[in-house]
Amino acid sequence: MKINILSPGRFHVLDLARELDKNGFDVKFYSFVPTKRAVSFGLPAHCSASLFLPMLPFLSLQKVFRGQQWAAQLRIWVQDRMTAWLMRKCDVLIAMSGDFIVAPRKAKRQGSKVIIERGSKHILAQKRILESIPSNAGKKPVPDANVRRELACYELADYISIASQHVMRSFVEEGFDVKKLFINPYGVNLKDFYPMPSAKKVYDVIMVGGWSYQKGCDLIVDAIKSMNLRFLHVGALVDLPFPQGDPRFTHVDAVEQSRLEEYYAQSKVFVFPSRQDGFGMVLSQAVACNLPIAGSKDCGASDLQGMVELPEYIKLIDDYTPESVAKALTEILKAYEQMDGKVYAGEAISRLTWESYGKRYAAFLGNMGGVNLKVLHQIRKYDVIMVGGWSYRKGCDLIVDAIKTMNLRFLHVGALVDLPFPQGDPRFTHVDAVEQSRLEEYYAQSKVFVFPSRQDGFGMVLSQAVACNLPIAGSKDCGASDLQGMVELPEYIKLIDDYTPESVAKALTEILKAYEQMDGKVYAGEAIDSLTWEAYGKRYTQFLKTL
């Protein structure tokens, strides 16, 4: 498979190009990154199609007129057309969003699939957030030209590759088809980032990245002052003053990634209250260095909770207030004191590497033409999900005991009816009932579906789970046995033998094993057509004709 990757600079897509090459794809990386520099990041020279020399005048112009939109737009306009002219015909084109329109259109005309790489929220959601920043009052932090180009990219895309669940929600809220979204969190180089337990902890808290309102740094200042902690910032100063002269605050200008490890090693915990970040790669670095994290809901921290063995070492900041940041820091510093030598990522650290990122992308590319392909959410935050009323009738009492026995991560979506939910237990997460249009995002975060209902005519949530390609453990009294006869691979639907926690645990063990062996299979196959409302209506019509 020939793959062209288009980028204005390095970004994460250079790492993507390197990993796809390792996975056997024929890759060309078109950017203004000099080939020598690309090679220094591990990209083979034969994969680099550098436009550095012809783009140099326009890059220089953009540097001289820094901050001038016309210079940036001119560079984008020229690079897009030059890339379209020079690039080879390919099977798949992967392009950074907003920077390329002409090249993807040409690829589409030639029969290529187009994947757009979007590092942040949907452009309209991002625009609203950035316009709310006080320092941007009266300005246009997102120019109209950028909005138009982004939206045009989205229209062109066969798929959009994103890095986190909150980015997915922003696209769904703007009416984008969730089936065209591919979630794949970015990686980290474990040779550069690793635990150093013997290092002296000079600082209580560290944050790495631009010192800005967008990153929530105003909240950090107030929280650190109220708690009287020692704080280190590493990165550029953007649009907020740094509290110079306060001995509690230390600033270090941006450094090469290879040097960041020494600063992580001097710190106890990492804070990242970003108001808008697709997936902060610094979070993965912090995890790799075994720093507990206090992170916002809009930076990828919640995705990381589902990727480590001990998610209690990643605390979510409840709200964008200094009090919420201070509360999360208090909890995560307490967790740090109780670590006792634990490496909280555990064996799951392998999921955070660029190698794993590349393999997930390779699997996605290999399945793009599959039958009824659903979104490949390769990183699942929860082991098990159940959707519906939390009640004795639905067998939820059995779920609790089974999950505790197996020590799994469980998600419930629905109303609380007549049973207490195990609040406070980190293994159990509850979300109140949501609109059906939003259920897909919760199915996508989970590996398998459980439904030990003592009485259900036909649980429609079961058909939803099948459509989302979630294997099922279901009772004999909920319709699961009927579904076994309606899919191509019935082994992905296990029946619960009896209404006991032991039977539920047994079925979950079997179905989780089946999940691990799926290897990209869509188990409903062509038979998924028989589960649609259209098929239901045709069967009813046929019945009416017999009357």
- Point out poorly predicted stretches: 369-378
Number of strands: 19
CATH class bucket of the largest domain:
Alpha Beta
The class by helix and strand makeup works out as alpha/beta
Q: Trace the largest sheet across and list its strands.
A: 3-2-1-4-5-6-7
Total number of domains: 3
N-to-C CA distance? 55 Å
* CATH level-four homologous superfamily name of the largest domain: Glycogen Phosphorylase B
Beta fraction: 15-25%
Biggest β-sheet description: 7 strands, parallel
How would you classify the quaternary structure?
single chain
- Mean pLDDT across residues: 90
Shape: globular
Please name the CATH architecture of the largest domain: 3-Layer(aba) Sandwich
Radius of gyration: 25 Å
Share in helix? 25-40%
The CATH topology annotation of the largest domain reads as: Rossmann fold
Keywords:
547 residues; alpha/beta; Rossmann fold; 6-stranded parallel β-sheet; 20 helices; globular
